[in-house]
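Narrative of activities, Objective 1.

The group set out to show that a structural description can be obtained from nothing but a protein's sequence at a throughput compatible with the screening campaign. Below is one input-output pair from the validation batch, recorded exactly as produced.
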Amino acid sequence: MSDYLLVFALAFLITAIATPVSIKLAPKIGAMDVPKDDRRMHKKPMPVLGGPAIYLGILVSVYFLLRDEARYKDQFLGIFIAATLMLIVGIIDDMRDKGLPAKVKLLGQLVCAFILWHYSLRFSGMANFFSSDPESYIVFPGWLSLIITMLWIVAITNTINLIDGLDGLAAGVVFIACISIAYVCTIHGRNETKFIILAMAGACLGFLIYNFNPARIFMGDSGALLLGLLLASVSMVGDTPTKSVTLFSTILPMIILALPIFDTVFAMIRRILSHRSFMEADKGHLHHRIIAMGFGQRRTVLVIYCICAILGIAGVLWTLQMKLEAIALIFIAGTLMFIFLGTRIDINDQIAAREEAAHVNEPMGRIEPVREKVEEIDVS
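Output recorded for this entry:
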């Protein structure tokens, strides 16, 4: 068995074994998501402590295989420290009834970003695309490097956190992204990054056993913030901002994660136009709108998986210099997203129509509860 397959299998097994422990531990420490408003998709209290199991799966498997690896040792130490701090912030948020204040979570993310920057996980420059020399690059001053690095890490971290709205959604999206990035790592020979990415993929798959609909546990902020931080940081493992590194660190993740990034940007614009806070949750995300079309939770998640897979393939093709084909796939995925984001359905009329149809056409035991399909669709 190759080391890459081994790190994937270890992360999968450790997470799959640790998750039931998290399920039992969550009620004892108060890490439960109790549905108190109509934005929730679940009807009963659910454990919301997926982070520790995912953390163990990733960190233990990576340490087991890279403990004697000297190259980029300081950067891996920085990832470990920042990931541990982010996990703690997420667990505290999951344990509090109303969660941590948004400013406190943002402060935690900024501290984690500074730790990563301190350990040389940073944007130290960018490739000089106006030069014919592939090794030519522009060096950023320290202050600019810090600002760009912090913005990148905070943005990707929150992008993953915001997509975590349905059973299995965030874990599946991250899994698809990790598999795509791992393939690109193989092409570019980024073996150390490939270890962490495959560990993340294995941990997500192990967690999906319990998180896919109907979920027995939610990922929570402890898991979503952790995965977002790791996705943002592992792409910066390395030191020289050549064109290939610039492609890997920024362009590739933006293509592969285009769906959650676009959904986050769309949410920010929507909240600005409605004069609401950036941190205020609403019901207009992509997955809400797909459910509004009557897909149900499982089908909605699978639709989003498919769009993410298309973008993952596009990212791979882009790195292979097949840019026309990549643009075509990005256009297809973008068209699907715009179609779903344009959905406008009146929630009360939709509920009434579906309940009437359900009572007339289906036995009670065979229908999916109508209000679970459309309960939070207010997409104005």
